[in-house]
Amino acid sequence: MILEVAGLTMRFGGLTAVSAVSFAALRGEITAVIGPNGAGKTTLFNCITGFYRPSSGAIRLHRTGELPVDLHGLPGHRIAQAGVARTFQNIRLFPGMTALENLLVAQHNKLMAATGFGIGAVLGLSRYPKAERQAIELARHWLSATHLLDRADDPAGALPYGAQRRLEIARAMCTEPTLLCLDEPAAGLNPRESEELARLLQEIRAQGTSLLLIEHDMGVVMKISDRVVVLDHGKLIADATPAEVRADPKVIAAYLGEGEEDEVEA
Ligand SMILES: Nc1ncnc2c1ncn2[C@@H]1O[C@H](COP(=O)(O)OP(=O)(O)OP(=O)(O)O)[C@@H](O)[C@H]1O
């Protein structure tokens, strides 16, 4: 496994948004978290990415050849350093910076380390230019993978919505994460853009990054996920393959309801 969630509970005052949820996301797989409105998906996501400190339970990252890292209780930036990148439901790019610059900013930590945190650059040490070249190469790789190479020098804020969403994913990938967490990546995309997104996420998986996504677009979820975790009223009600989840009466009753079954068949 890459991510282990064990007995995770998150309370807001008297409301238990996530209740004793346990599941594992496996290495090299796409794990989707679905559920009706208010099921606790965003809360779970925010616990995993360090925006909330869970009330109880554990979240562990298992990296190959290393000791597991307890993510619960770590601040967001430490979780990012541990190898977990995230995108946001609302786009959070630097709109005035170019697409390329946004991807270089994402590599700031790596570049700063290469300068010996400033000292090396002042002394003109040779490690910085090499690190900078590598950062640009990586940025160009992800611009190309997200079909944005021709927009590299355009301000991020001037890109169409779908392109900005892809740039967000490219930015997250520039941190070279072990686990990429995506919060509703298909929100607001048209069917063609959703198709492209599905392909991009499959490519990311093929390149060795594991993915965890919260998604409402059942077409995308059912097509690309290896495993689907279903929440309802904060509780886990299913953890299975897309085909199994689709046929699970509990899921249909809780999440899909009559009339929405067709959407899942899509
Ligand atoms: N910061 C908060 N303070 C208080 N209650 C919250 C907070 N965040 C979420 N909740 C409550 O927790 C429950 C789960 O919400 P959450 O946003 O995690 O669900 P969700 O599955 O992501 O829903 P949606 O699909 O609508 O985004 C809801 O009842 C919500 O009102």
Mean pLDDT: 89
**How would you classify the helix and strand content by structural class?**
alpha/beta
Please give the order of strands in the largest beta sheet: 6-7-8-3-9-10
CATH fold field value of the domain at 1-77 and 211-266: Rossmann fold
What gross morphology would you assign? globular
- SSE sequence, one letter per element: EEEHEEHEHHHHHEHEHEEHHH
Question: What CATH architecture label of the domain at 1-77 and 211-266 applies?
Answer: 3-Layer(aba) Sandwich
The CATH class name of the domain at 1-77 and 211-266 reads Alpha Beta
**Low-pLDDT segments, ≥5 res:** 258-266
For the termini, the CA-CA separation is 29 Å
Q: Rounded to an integer, what's the Rg over CA atoms?
A: 19 Å
Q: Write down how many β-strands occur, each being a DSSP E stretch of 2 or more residues.
A: 10
Report the major sheet.
Answer: 6 strands, mixed
- Number of H- or I-type helical stretches: 12
Q: What is the CATH homologous superfamily assignment of the domain at 1-77 and 211-266?
A: P-loop containing nucleotide triphosphate hydrolases
Strand content: 15-25%
Helix-residue proportion: 40-55%
Bound compounds, please?
adenosine-5'-triphosphate
Organism: Roseicella aerolata
Family: Belongs to the ABC transporter superfamily.
Pfam family, one: ABC_tran
GO biological process, one term: L-valine import across plasma membrane
